[in-house]
Amino acid sequence: MASSTTANRFLLLCFLLSAASDTPSAARTARNSTSTASVRRMHEQWMAQHGRMYKDAAKKERRFRIFKANVEYIESANRAGNRLYTLGPNRFTDLTNEEFRASYLGFRPTPRPKGKAQSPCRYANDLMLDSMDWRSRGAYICTYAGCCWAFSAVAATEGITKIRTGQLISRSEKELLDCNNDGYSCNGGTMDGAFQFIVSNGSLATKAAYPYRAMQGTCNAAQVSSAATISGYEDVQANSESALLSAVAN
Q1: Are 245 and 132 in contact (CB under 8 A)?
Q2: CATH code at 134-249
Q3: What number is the average pLDDT over the span 13-41?
Q4: pLDDT at 183
Q5: For the segment 50-83, what is each residue's pLDDT rounded down to a tens digit?
Q6: d(Cα 168, Cα 80) in Å, to the nearest integer?
Q7: End-to-end CA, the chain
Q8: What's the pLDDT band for 46 if we cut at 50, 70, 90?
Q9: The pTM is what?
């Protein structure tokens, strides 16, 4: 029990510690009054500094409350004066400790609903090939580093659209990052969550209509026309290269 408590304290320290190198001016501000009005101004300044934007007013208010709670903790810890370091706001200050741990301390797959068994892949018994590479057939667009869950899901959607329709058009990763509530933008997400969004949304915009920018933004999906959709998705059997090859070949 003691080791668990120590670990939790260490994780909280990792979450909040970086004042000396990250935002020294914000650390000084945190020592001031944590009244709602002052922290709200501080939050606006923090958003501008870190390029942080929220989908809507409700989400902004929720993040502000988390931000305020963290600022109050920072001020309390600094006021105690019993540490060899000083805490201050950083780019994680609008996350709860649980959200920080889920996003930055390893992969946390979305649990399957209880009692729901994974269905066999429809291509499990198909004729096995030695190899399959859709790049040689033009069903691939080069991607680049970034929010891997969104880029992976978009690449798969682009590929299947090319295979089914003959058209290869770049789709919008940014729509997934801005509009999908199941992910944390470039702080983490899953391909399953991205596919579920595309299915429920009924479409995914083109990259030209909804271009990528390396920062979180507000959802503008209503302002762009749809370009592609999928009717569903399947999870291939884990740790099976043969199952993966059968799925890719089809």
Answers
A1: yes
A2: 3.90.70.10
A3: 59
A4: 55
A5: 999 998 999 999 999 999 999 999 999 999 988 8
A6: 60
A7: 51
A8: very high
A9: 0.48
pLDDT of res. 150: 86
Cα 33–39–40 angle (5° rounding)?
150
Q: Which long-range contacts (CB under 8 A, 24 or more apart) does 92-100 make?
A: 92/15, 92/16, 93/16, 93/46, 93/67, 94/43, 94/46, 94/52, 94/63, 94/64, 94/66, 94/67, 94/70, 95/15, 95/66, 95/187, 96/66, 97/11, 97/12, 97/15, 99/184, 100/11, 100/15
- Residues 6+ away with beta carbon under 8 Å from 31: 75, 78, 79
Cα–Cα distance measured from residue 163 to residue 136, given in angstroms and rounded to the nearest whole number = 12
- Cα–Cα distance for residue pair 116/96, rounded to 1 Å: 30
**Pick from 23, 21, 13: nearest CA to 48:** 23
**What residue segments make up the domains of the chain, in order of their start?**
11-104, 134-249
Q: Pinpoint the alpha helices (H) of the chain.
A: 2-16, 24-30, 36-50, 57-80, 97-104, 148-165, 173-179, 191-201, 241-249
Tell the CATH topology of 11-104: Helix Hairpins (1.10.287)
The DSSP letter of residue 151 is H
Nearest-5° angle of CA 247, CA 129, CA 166? 55
